[in-house]
Every structure is written in structure tokens, then in C-alpha cells.
Amino acid sequence: MKNMLEATTFGGTSTTDDVLSNMNLKGKRILVTGVSAGLGVETARSLVAHGAQVAGAARDLNKARAATEHVRKDAAANGGSFELIELDLATLKSVRACADRLLAKGEPFDVFIANAGVMATPFGHTVDGFETQFGTNHLGHFVLINRIAPLIRTGGRLINVSSAGHRRSNVDLEDPNFERTPYEPFVAYGRSKTANILFAVAFDQRHRQRGVRAAAVHPGIIETELIRHMRPSWLQTRVEEINQQLAAAGKPPIHWKSIPQGAATSVWAGVVAPADEIGGRYCEDCHVGSVVPSDAVTEGVRGYAVDPRTAEALWKKSEELVGEPF
């Protein structure tokens, strides 16, 4: 099977079922956050359909139960299992309580897919006073993942779902909560998605010696609940601008992905790709992305998002903000 997988090339149109074809995940335990809609539900479904035991975290358990009814059926039909756990990434009390419950159970994980997040929200703060997107997308996961890191088995992986939106901004460690900077929703989103990549870089550096690797992934452009804060007219205008830039560069227009195509890179990086290939890297379209210059429009990762010094500085700042050393 290994040679067959190595000979298979996946890309932007590959689906979760494509990348998991012929995979047997029985005995694998996988934690996925954000299983109440979109990519999180599809990620969980595809994994249990191949026999994995999936723990799905969500803020609204009633919504998640309704959204994952078919996931439980797929699990029962294919020798997998699915359970829900409560997690609100916008309050560290909930994050720590979730971590405590998982640690008390003591059941190890092979993969942690940090999928949950918010996008382009109006200016606001989490319960703990952090800017909403940075606090939810980065700091919540930062605390949860570090607290349960001992549960990740040797040979395990952390996959942070980031975005091409990281190109909008590097992190700002001097003003992470926009106390002195005018708030712009997509700049804040960009900061949080850059933080997701940098966190993967730093986590990989800390844990690779024990055989645990970390990577960040860009799922692609998909219409999910994530875009609920965006005006349709703004989104259409932005897509047209990017397509004009692509046409000028002799490239095809933006490819909108289906949800199974969007979740494919998370699954590929989590259980299919060789660990040494993806460790400490940024992945997109089921391959490792290259570091690209600042004028690149639709592919690759900005150098600042994989810079190990910035990753260390973000780690230290994050510890300071949450009041907890890791």
C-alpha cells in the first residue's frame, strides 16, 4: 500500500475519499475541532468511514449532534466511532475544562486536527479580552493543544487549519488586540491564520524528537459558514480582483472547492503524507506549499509565516497572554 500511496499524486480537486482510498484507519484516534458545520463535519465523516475513532469538539453540542448524525451512521457501518466533546475556543475556562476532561480520560490521540475558527468578524473580544479572531483561532487552540500534548502518541501529528488569508498580515506581537491599530477584519483574520502556521512551526520544533510532527494547511476557497460575516458583494468584488490579477499573470481563475475537496488537505496531511515531508510546513491542494514572494496571488506561503524566530516570539507572547507556560 505504501508504494501505491507514494505513486499517487493528489491535487486541488482531490476529495477526502480520494486521498483516503484504500486506507484502513482502524485503531487510530483523531481529535477534530469545529465539528458543527462544514469542513469539520466532512473531516470527521471521512475519517470514521475508514474506521477511525474520532472525538469531535464543538461549542454548540445540539447543533453539532444534528450536523453529525450521518457521521455516527458512517462510523457504525465501518468499524469507527464518533463522540462529541464541548469546547468554546473563545473562553479559556472552556478550553481548560475540555483539556482536563481529555487528560482525565487519558486516551491517546494519533492526530489532532485544529479545524475550528472564525473569519472576518466585527471587532470584538473573547471572554478573556483577546481580539476575537486571534483569541479564537490561535490562543484557544494554543492552550488546548499544549495542555493535551502528552496525549499525542509517538508518531502522531498536529494539523492546524490555516488559510491563504495569512498573506493579508504577519502577526503583530506589539499590538495583538488592536488597541493601537485601526481594526480591519481581514487584517485580523490574516494575523490569526499566520499565527496558526507559526504555532505549527514552533510545535513541530519542540516535539519532533519524540516523533510528533506538526503542519498547517490551507483548505482552499470554499463556501461554508465561515463566510457568514462577509457581504456577498464584497466577496464577489474580491474574487473578481484576484481573477484579474491571475489573468494578467496568464493563470486560470480561482477554483472554488466543494467541502470534500476543502477537507482533503487536512486529511492528507494528517494520515496520508509522509511525516517528514509535512513536518513544520504549510500545505495546500494536498502537497507542501513553497515559500513565495509577497506579490504571489494564489499559491504558496509567505516567508514570515514559517520564520522560526517569529514562531518562537509568538510562542512566548502567547504564553504571556494566556498566563500559562508550556
Kindly describe this structure.
- 43% of the residues lie in helices and 16% in strands.
- It has 326 residues and is an alpha/beta fold.
- The chain has a single domain (2-322), classed as NAD(P)-binding Rossmann-like Domain (Rossmann fold), CATH 3.40.50.
- α3 packs parallel to α5, α6 packs parallel to α7 and α8 crosses α13 (308-322).
- The longest helix is centred in the middle third of the chain and has 23 residues, at 185-207.
Layout of strands and helices, then pairs:
Layout: H1 2-7, H2 16-19, E1 29-33, H3 38-48, E2 53-58, H4 61-67, H5 69-78, E3 81-86, H6 92-105, E4 109-114, H7 132-148, E5 152-161, H8 185-207, E6 213-218, E7 221-222, H9 232-248, E8 256-257, H10 259-262, H11 264-272, H12 275-278, E9 282-284, E10 287-288, E11 291-292, E12 301-302, H13 308-322
Parallel strand pairs: 1-2, 1-4, 2-3, 4-5, 5-6, 6-9, 7-8, 11-12
Antiparallel strand pairs: 9-10
Helix pairs in contact: 3-5, 6-7, 7-8, 8-13
